[in-house]
Amino acid sequence: MASSNGSPRDGQGRFAEVAVFVPVRPHWHQGKAESPSGEQPLAERLQLFHYGIPDDLQSRLVSGHVVRVPFGRRTVNGVVMRRSSTSPVATRLILDLIQDKPVLGQHQLELAGWMAAFYGAPLSSCLSLFVPPGLLGRNQDRKPMGPRMDWYLQLAVEDEDLVPRLLQAGRATRPVRLLETLDGLRQATGRTELSRTELQEVAGKGYGPALKALADQGLVGGVGGTVHFTLEPAVVVQARLALRGSGRWLLPLQALSGMGGSAWKSDLPGEFRSLEIWRRLQEYRLVFLDRRRRPRDPLAGAAYPRTRAVPLTGEQGAALQAVLAGGNGSNDASHRAWMLQGVTGSGKTEVYLQVLEACLDRGHQAIVLVPEIALTPQTVSRFAGRFPGRVSVMHSGLTPGQRFDVWTDVLDGKVDILVGARSALFAPMPQLGLIVVDEEHDDSYKQSAELWGGATVFYDARRVALQMSKSLPVRLLMGSATPSLQTLHRVKQGTVRLLRLPHRIHAAGRGVVRAELPPIELVDMRQELMAGNLSVFSRLLQDQLATALERHEQAILFINRRGTRTFVMCRMCGHVMECTACTNVLTWHSDIERLQCHTCGREFPNPSVCPACGDRRIRYFGSGTQRIAADLDKRFPGVRVLRWDADSAGGQGGHTRIMESFQAHEADVLVGTQMIAKGLDLPKVTVVGAVAADVGVNLPDFRAAERACQLLIQVAGRAGRSERGGRVVIQTYNPDHYAIRAAVRHDYDAFCRAELEFRQQLRYPPYRRLARLIVWDRKQEQARRHAATMMTALEDARMSLDSGEAIELIGPAPPFHAQLQSWWRMQILVLAEDPVRLIERVPVGPAWRVDVDPVSTL
């Protein structure tokens, strides 16, 4: 971008180029102007519209401002990308600013433009990632979200002074003054009765009505002759408060005192929230009343145990020094991006923490990305315990108000370390110096294209973070026991540097000692079947579970739910039904009762006998957590089982609740899906079982082997993370698969070498880029027609594209889940050095989703 925000001088022009937040289509033009051409990416050019700048904004408007503009018959929001001195069309004027200050900085505008070009996405969708929550509501006339304001109350006196001060407040009527006079006399002289003459001397003339009022309330007696007043002091105090009208304020003040002497008005009991009460008490100087911003802090009330840095091993120290030494005055991005490959339990987190400490000492801020919300509490606990008061969180599980306040605090420099899922990457940190990507291999860093509606830019936070390390610049430290093949390929290319932690360690006193990875035992479930064991648990796994339960230890059972009940396999020989044309695994579709290839679209009948061995023991594969939990209960009566999957973790805080329950040993066995493989540190777990390893290996996706190997190694790493040690059992019908063999040996490097060689032969990613075009329609036949039309357009565009590279088109065919949310889907795959160059040459209608660099083709 040529402009720079912060000063209206960018372009010194009377016009602004604005990216509007509406789904602009390529055939939309401004006035009679043709689609603009230039060096900007197509996705940007097609969404920039010229507007005139009104006189009152000429001196204030800069790049990065969010503005309201007329768009057709509507009023919409947009971001000023730059100012210009000319416009190719007659323009309408910008209406006003949404906020006085620019919302996006220049580097954010440039990064959004890069994302639009790299992912072939609408520019407005990329820009919206950087905009604070609530600023771009659907109702353009609605006031944008702002800080939450509330009244803050503080007691102005000590607790023991509340009643004496209230006795001076309220209305000082004649009955009040008379009662106070009588009570004062009693306290001074001890007398409890007075004659009429004496009463007139102390109370003055005209005391009769006041005396009668006290008598009517039973506060004095003997009005006709000698006046008696013998009430207990406490009763007199209550009477004085009641007569003054200040007694009604005692309970609110006591409630405030019970909350520590200060509180937000909205936190008080409902009967004490009237602002009028507190304004009157402020008049009597009993409270301080102040309207201020009330932070919606997602970590409010949380307490984290303090931790201190521990001595590093030589390997950890070398990794730390490499990161700290890199990036100093170098324009080479490879000096600012590292991949920390460390086996499970090797101390990667301690390296992160000490790199962060050095970053903060230099006056910088940091972003720590985790792949799932479920990991956020554990990560926050570690980081907040080391850096108290300097950590906050950002993820989709927060309320819009919480996200807005965190965004504001980050912008104001009140947050030094931001922990969160992929969206935290776009927080406006003015002094960003470090990005940490934990569990780098995890697919959750890629925005999913599997749901209709919502996002239209399917970005990968890992790739965006790498781009940020090049352009800002900031240090990027990624970590995993099983790095993605894409990142390892970048290591070979020299754009990322590799650091290794090859040994597991345990805490020992004030230091650490080296430990062994848990042994992994492979069980051939075909042999179990031949031995008459029809259970989902092998005999070895049953024995290991029984031993762990006897020792009051914990166990984890992992189920790969991806592809549940979709592929067909012979239980006798392990043969999986494959397409005869392209050797991809076939998927069973119950609606048509046929096997289908999701690459070429061919269909096959379900065989009654195995084509490899002739056996009839053929079944659909997949088991859910409910079934496993039920089988455990039958085999081990009384066992406490906890499920962790999308269903059981539903609702806010569900993941945290499950993890804390298991950490507190409220359950003996945790049965879960991919979530339990994501970096959890559970020292009481000594047994891990992978119930059906074949589910992940046999999916019709070229990344299936990579994903399966990563999952098995990661889930195995949950065992033996303390001095108790641990054992891992992997059950499979395909024990000779290279991904499973590599996982059993803890030899991820060997798997990577074999898999990268295989992909290089086929020119699959990372050796070429892949794009996935998915069309959605309520009618299956209509989806097929859309896909056929798109395929023709892509083939024509490929013919006209004089690039000299081989562009491969695959499809159209139904994806793995051909029907989702009552929508029918068809997909086309594009393999090319830059698939966006081809895709931007064809009309992509609103029914299509373009997923560039997908992590799955299922």
Automatic annotation (TrEMBL):
GO terms for cellular component: primosome complex
Cofactor remark: Binds 2 zinc ions per subunit.
UniProt domain Helicase ATP-binding: residue ranges: 329-501
Source organism (scientific name): Caldilineaceae bacterium SB0662_bin_9
Family, per entry: Belongs to the helicase family. PriA subfamily.
Reactions the enzyme catalyzes: ATP + H2O = ADP + phosphate + H(+); Couples ATP hydrolysis with the unwinding of duplex DNA by translocating in the 3'-5' direction
EC id: 5.6.2.4
Cofactor entry: Zn(2+)
UniProt domain Helicase C-terminal: residue ranges: 551-774
Entry keyword set: ATP-binding, DNA replication, DNA-binding, Helicase, Hydrolase, Isomerase, Metal-binding, Nucleotide-binding, Primosome, Zinc
GO biological process, one term: double-strand break repair
Source domain of life: Bacteria
Gene name linked to the record: priA
NCBIfam families tied to this protein: priA
Entry protein name: Replication restart protein PriA
Function: Initiates the restart of stalled replication forks, which reloads the replicative helicase on sites other than the origin of replication. Recognizes and binds to abandoned replication forks and remodels them to uncover a helicase loading site. Promotes assembly of the primosome at these replication forks.
